[in-house]
Write a structure and sequence with these properties.
This protein is an alpha/beta fold and 230 residues long. The protein contains 8 helices and 8 strands; from the N terminus they run βαβαβαβααββαβαβα. Strands 1-2-3-4-5-6-7-8 form an 8-stranded parallel barrel, surrounded by 4 helices. The structure holds 2-phosphoglycolic acid.
């Protein structure tokens, strides 16, 4: 690739899956087999309850694995029952997924709330990764990392998988870069598997993948990570 290897983000979004012991088992299988590469960031986003244990296991093992959250509160610390505030999360996570379509569909999350979450993340040194569902989804100020995840493509892994085409994902990535600047990094998510990961990662304007179902199995996830090695 002209100008050297591009940066790639390979992100596991476990959603509401894995007990603490299952999470630790995954880390013990994946961690030791990850290669340390300057241009590749491998991130795992467990449920909140497992975050601290996963972080400890990663540190103890010295694995090149970053721990991320799946969401955070739009508010600072305070009287917000049930929410995880960014100042509480910041010692544990380096990144947070924000504005996932499942949060918009099931929990009434709005683009305005996503903007507040981006600000909270940034104020606390957490990288905001904003999910965009289509070309119209706004990218909040200060966000430089997004994942294009068309809702029709989410959680369809398996024989009837309906990932978007790499060509379409590339086209959408160009639209966002033209609108928000060339320094915006765009990932693709939605039924990414070990079979199709490389077809997305090799697109010029796609800087990684956000992987749900296929990230739960250590072997499948490792194959996806390997497809980012040139
Ligand atoms: P999926 O989920 O890989 O299971 O489709 C991706 C996501 O929702 O982030």
């Amino acid at each position: 690739m002209a100008g050297g290897e591009k940066n790639l983000w390979i992100i596991a979004n476990w959603k509401s899956n894995k007990t603490i012991s299952e999470a630790l088992e995954w880390v013990s299988q994946v961690g030791p087999r990850l290669e340390r590469k300057d241009n590749i960031k491998v991130i795992v986003c467990p449920e909140v309850v497992a975050l601290e244990e996963v972080k400890k296991a990663v540190m103890t093992g010295g694995f090149p694995l970053i721990v991320g959250a799946q969401d955070l509160s739009p508010f600072d610390q305070g009287a917000y029952t049930g929410e995880e505030a960014a100042p509480t999360l910041k010692g544990i996570v380096q990144l947070s997924i924000l504005g996932h379509s499942e949060r918009k569909q099931n929990f009434g999350e709005t683009d305005q709330m996503v903007s507040l979450k981006v600000k909270e993340a940034k104020d606390n040194g957490i990288v905001p990764l904003v999910c965009v569902q289509n070309e119209q989804t706004p990218v909040p100020d200060g966000c430089k990392l997004i994942a294009y995840e068309p809702p029709f493509s989410i959680s369809t892994s398996g024989p009837d998988a309906q990932a978007d085409t790499p060509e379409d994902a590339e086209k959408v990535a160009r639209v966002f870069k033209e609108k928000y600047g060339e320094d915006l990094e765009v990932l693709y998510g939605g039924s990414v598997t070990a079979q199709n990961a490389k077809t997305f990662l090799s697109q010029e304007n796609i800087s990684g993948v956000l992987v749900g179902g296929a990230s739960l199995d250590p072997e499948e996830f490792l194959k996806i990570v390997e497809s980012s090695y040139v």
